[in-house]
Amino acid sequence: MKPFRPFFIAAILVGTFFYFTTYRSTRLWPMNWIRRPDRVEITEAAGGGNPDDVEEQNNISVYHKNIDSVVNITSRAVAFDFFYGLVPQEGQGSGFIIDKEGHILTNYHVIADARQLEVTLHNRKKFRALVIGTDRSHDLAVIQIKGAEFTPMVLGDSKNLQVGQKVYAIGNPFGLSGTLTSGIVSSIRQVQEPEGMRIDEAIQTDAAINPGNSGGPLLNWRGEVIGINTMIASNSGQSAGIGFAIPINTAKAVLNDLVTLGRVRRPALGVVTIPISPELAEQMGLAADSGLLIERVVAGGAADNAGLHGGSQQAYLGNYPIMTGGDLIVAIDGQDVPDEQNLSQVMNNHRAGDPVRVTIYRGKKKMDITVTLGEAREQREQV
Predict the structure, then answer these.
(1) Cα(105)–Cα(300) distance, rounded to whole angstroms?
(2) pLDDT of amino acid 119
(3) Which residue range forms the structural domain that includes residue 202?
């Protein structure tokens, strides 16, 4: 019997294991224990889902107030492949209706090089669109659709925006039409777009902005447009919480030209200037320690016609020759212009033909001169 003892013990262990893990378990939990009730009793929330929160109510109000005015723009273009064959290309962006005649404001890069534009409203109606005017330097464009009267959006004021203000973005990210995201104004700063275009006083926001949002509106809590969403800062090409919008005041300053002329009459003083630092002002013996020193006035330009003076004495700034002795511009319409960036911001709020009050020092004498802005024809005249 001794040779069979290990097999006998093993059989007992296996039988015991089977009894407790399978046979007994099956008997304790039969398959027919399930009983199906006549109905399921659940606990439901009261109120039917109506929003009680004031912020939620405002979100919904802003969305419904504006969604019919936000459009999806599909641009179709052609490019050449390696073998110089035509390759169709399609892109998508957003825009918003600004008047009852169907004019739509969007980004220039949304419609650039497009041979055909199609606009889709929130109700899914589609329209062919024509380009009415473009402003590449500000990444703005106006297109138009024809049809019955359209519902325009209300254009607000971007002048006195504060960091922390509530904002909303409506657009078509990744082609998902009618998408609302919210956030705050994160900062107001100058940024440069990938194509080299510079946006003065761009509105930075953490509201989610993704490809397809370009050209769509950025709104304040009242549902008024304060910016045009245009770009994001991201390593992945998707929202990383840093988006930028063109201030609506920049667009409003050029809208009339875009619609009536198809281009922008860029305003210019008609001067070539150099920025003055406190150290440079002390060396030159200037009456103010900051501003823009006029090196040269453009013959027949706005400054020349108003009687502003350029430099008359040659000097050197390092190895760079400059002209000194001209008027020192310190403010325009009461706004300080310590450098060319500030001057550019002032110009963005005007157009050619507008009168401005230029505060200068001529020698030690401070004076105000009214200048009727001309139209910029050369890049250096704009600074």
Answers:
(1) 34
(2) 95
(3) 166-260
**Is this structure's pTM higher than 0.90?**
no
Among candidate residues 103, 109, 138, 350, the one labeled active-site is 109
Q: How buried is residue 279: exposed, middle or buried, by Cβ count under 10 Å (0-12/13-18/19+)? A: exposed
Q: Based on the fold, state whether residues 197 and 132 are members of the same structural domain.
A: no
Q: Is residue 290 part of a domain?
A: yes
Q: Which of 232, 209, 233 is nearest to 219 (CA)?
A: 209
What's the pLDDT score for residue 375? 86
- Three-state DSSP at 28 gives helix
Residues across the chain: 383
Domain shared by 283 and 359, yes or no: yes
Low-confidence stretches of the chain (pLDDT < 50) are: 28, 86, 378-383
Residue 383's pLDDT is what?
42
| CA pair distance 181, 359, nearest whole angstrom | 44
The pLDDT score that the predictor gives to residue 118 is 95
Tokens in use for 301? Answer: 């330009």
Over residues 168-224, the pLDDT tens digits come to 999 999 888 899 999 999 999 988 877 767 788 899 999 999 888 999 999 999 999
- Per the annotation, the verdict on 94 as an active-site residue is no
Question: What pLDDT is attached to residue 268?
Answer: 87
Count of the separate structural domains present in the chain: 3
| Residues 256 and 272 reside in one and the same domain | no
Between CA 348 and CA 360 the distance in angstroms is 20
Structure confidence at residue 43 (pLDDT): 82
**Which one from 69, 177, 182, 214 is the annotated catalytic residue?**
214
pLDDT (0 to 100) of residue 7: 66
d(CA 167, CA 170): 10
Residue of 75, 103, 139, 257 marked catalytic: 139
**Main-chain dihedrals φ then ψ at residue 279, nearest 5 degrees:** -65, -45
Q: What angle do CA 172, 178, 181 make, to 5 degrees?
A: 80
- Whether 97 is covered by a domain: the verdict is yes
Domain boundary, last residue among 260, 293, 316: 260
* 214 classed as catalytic: yes
Catalytic status, residue 81:
no
Same-domain check for residues 361 and 285: yes
Angle at which helices 340-348 and 248-260 cross, to 10°: 60
Which pLDDT value is given to residue 175?
A: 83
